[in-house]
Amino acid sequence: MASSPQPPLLPTEIAAAALREHAEVAAALPPLLPTIAELATRLVETLRRDGRVLLCGNGGSAADAQHLAAELVGRFLCDRRPFPALALTTDTSILTAVANDIGYMEVFARQVLALGRPGDLLIAISTSGNSPSVLRAAEAARQQGLMVAGLTGRTGGRLRPLCDLCLCVPSEATPRIQEMHILIGHILCDVAERTLGEVER
Ligand SMILES: O=C(CO)[C@@H](O)[C@H](O)[C@H](O)[C@H](O)COP(=O)(O)O
Ligand SMILES: [Zn+2]
Fold first, then answer.
1. Whole-complex ipTM
2. 131 CB less than 6 Å from ligand 1?
3. Is 181 one of the annotated binding-site residues?
4. Whole-angstrom distance, CA of residue 152 vs CA of residue 177
5. CB neighbours of 166 closer than 8 A, spacing ≥ 6?
6. Which residue spans within the chain are E strands per DSSP?
7. Among 50, 53, 108, 167, which has the minimal tally of Cβ within 10 Å of its Cβ?
8. What does the pLDDT look like over 26-66, one tens digit per residue?
9. Which of 107, 168, 174 to mutate to test ligand 1, by most ligand atoms within 8 A of the CB atom?
10. Structural domains in the chain?
11. Residue 171 to residue 156: CA distance in whole angstroms
12. Which ligand has its closest atom nearest to the C-alpha of 174?
């Protein structure tokens, strides 16, 4: 006998489940603290020697790349010198030309090869760790002598072995992983600003 269909969840039930899941994933982050601190240190070292931070990702992770570049170039919590950071997700002429003429998977890699220099830092953001455009960016960065930091989830996917440092959020849920990525990104900005900026809160 066919089972009767479940009634749809109420908005409050969906919201409560999301809040619970978010809190559970956040509570599982402390084991990542040493890697977060290491990445923050490498970010500070990069900025201290005027290296650039390049960031890339797709969909929500493109938004994260832009959000973090904006914090670094502009300000996070206090006034200080602008930090050189660039999201590789914003120039629609470059993105459409490279996707159209070469292939979507090259959209970030091409910019890494054009703009990245040894000593720069690529922050590659992919919740699955398997987006071809992000993998190609990491490969290009390695080839060009950049340090590669991955913000991932799940197992870290094929991005993990391409990274010098990989922060893998222990969750299978893309939105929850993204929420932790922006939390980690804010921590990185906070450390950079407190270490390199004049404190004016
Ligand atoms: O924001 C979301 C889902 O929360 C989506 O836009 C999501 O970012 C896209 O599906 C991405 O293409 C997923 O790519 P990735 O994180 O696996 O590299
Ligand atoms: Zn999203």
1. 0.99
2. yes
3. no
4. 8
5. 35, 149, 150, 152, 156, 159, 160
6. 53-56, 85-87, 121-125, 147-153, 165-169
7. 50
8. 999 999 999 999 999 999 999 999 999 999 999 999 999 99
9. 174
10. 19-196 (3.40.50.10490)
11. 10
12. 1
